[in-house]
Amino acid sequence: MQNIAEAFSLAFALVLSGDADLFEIVALSLQVSLTATLLSCLIGLPLGALVAIARFPGRGAVLVVMNALMGLPPVVVGLLVYLHLSRSGPLGFLGLLYTPTAMIIAQTILIAPIVAALSRQVLEDLHGEYAEQFRSFCLTRRQIVRALLWDGRYSLLTVGLAGFGRAVAEVGAVMIVGGNIDHLTRVMTTAIALETSRGELALALALGIVLLVIALGVNAGVQALRMSAVRQAYV
Amino acid sequence: MSEARPLPASLATARAVAVPILPLRLRGVGLRLGGAVILDGVDLDLGAGGCTMVMGPNGAGKSQLLKLLHGLTAPSAGTIDWNGHAPQAVRARQALVFQKPVLLRRSVAANVDFVLRARGLDRSRVSALLDHVGLAHKAAQPARHLSGGEAQRLALARALATDPEILFLDEPTASLDPASVQAIERIVARAREGGTRVIFVTHDIGQARRLADDVVFLHRGRVAEHGPARDFFRQPRTEAARRFLDGQLVV
């Protein structure tokens, strides 16, 4: 309990002091996870929409795989990305290992399936409502996907949020491909892991509190947006 | 709304000069859904022009008939021939207004704009179309905040946006108040006067009397009667139609 109380006061002190290292870590965390979320949405949303409207042999198996991939262990993803980016790996020539780019790649692989699987469910429900009307309008598949993504945009915000939450909270993948290098690849979760292993529990907890507050802020923002959409009957 | 305003000719889409899709000819059309027989041996001929009212008790297959004609469902048996074309091939030249309007989660204007853009039509027609159905003053409002009657008028504006040769209406006025019914009937009458062939499913005998040129009476998945409206209402040939018009329960 003493640790928790100390952690809170330390967290406040850290934020109020304008600690440059802390802000660097927070900024990198947000940069990596938001970029990964954006990329995952660019990949996962159209993919989810396509699977939502398409009927093809083996669709059931595709759904099982998509859903199973939501549970990808971060360390496994980290390891796979590491093997590809390491000097002896097929993409070693790019020199990306231990860079924020490698961390973004790993987190994108981790959360794109989450975005795809969840958006598939959301958009399939929406398509169930629109399908006959869209067929009457003689829309192309591309037009249907675009219309579903636009009309489902507020529900899809929550999907993106789930991806962001997973990305910003994971430690295994970024630790392996980023290496937790100070001033280069250190993010909130790897910093927390490091401080914990060094016995600096209060500092680790303080960082955890900052992370929670950021997650809370992002969620509150999205929730406010959704509420306004609900009032407009756009959800 | 006092009256449906006409679409200015300059704003109406020029109807593509193409092979006419009427007359329509159905021979031996059957539809089975999940083992149940919905339509059975339907023979029907519809000529160009006018308003056909499709009537009959619940479960007679009226809505399913519209979906077959519009190419949304494929028949289990028989042929549907739009002057040599299959229903799917001419769907873009038709429009269907569903009983429960399916409105997009967008503004009223954006709902109409969506169809115009999707079909590559002149998007500046949005306000004229909304004005035509008396919804110009609600253009910026969320479509899902409209009342039942307004929502159906928006669905009609969307349907008319493509200047369809055939307009299918599946009980568009069910559960609407008299003012809304009147507004919708005026818009439909205007479309009919403008040369759009109207095929209208209704339960409302009064509405059928007001709008029909001819009546198709369906009963138990078959065309029990098809003839000029005047003859149908004056002297129905079948017992089921007689009882239906008398307001008796027909099952």
TrEMBL record, chain A:
The chain crosses the membrane at residues 32-54, 61-85, 97-118, 156-181, 201-222. Signal peptide: none annotated. Residues 26-222 form the ABC transmembrane type-1 domain. GO terms for cellular component: plasma membrane. PROSITE patterns: ABC_TM1 (PS50928). One of its GO terms (biological process) is transmembrane transport. Its main location: membrane. SUPFAM superfamilies: MetI-like (SSF161098). Keywords: Membrane, Transmembrane, Transmembrane helix, Transport. Pfam families: BPD_transp_1. It is a multi-pass membrane protein. It is found in: Cell membrane. Belongs to the binding-protein-dependent transport system permease family. This is ABC transporter permease. It comes from Thetidibacter halocola.
Automatic annotation (TrEMBL), chain B:
The keyword Glycoprotein does not apply. It holds the Pfam family ABC_tran. GO terms for molecular function: ATP binding; ATP hydrolysis activity. Residues 24-245 form the ABC transporter domain. SMART domains: AAA. InterPro entries: AAA+_ATPase (IPR003593), ABC_transporter-like_ATP-bd (IPR003439), ABC_transporter-like_CS (IPR017871), P-loop_NTPase (IPR027417). It comes from the Bacteria. Keywords: ATP-binding, Nucleotide-binding, Transport. This is ATP-binding cassette domain-containing protein.
